[in-house]
Amino acid sequence: MPTPGKTLISTPQIRKRVKILAREITRHYRGKPLTVVGLMNGSLFFLVDLLRELPVETRIECWRLKSYQGTRSTGKIQGLDSCGDDYSGRHVLIVDDILDTGLTLHEVTKKIRGLNAADVRICVLLDKQVPRKRDVTAHWTGFQIPNLFVIGYGLDLDHQYRTLPMIRVLPS
Ligand code: 5GP
Ligand code: MG
Question: pLDDT, tens digit, for every residue of 91-104?
Answer without folding.
Answer: 999 999 999 999 99
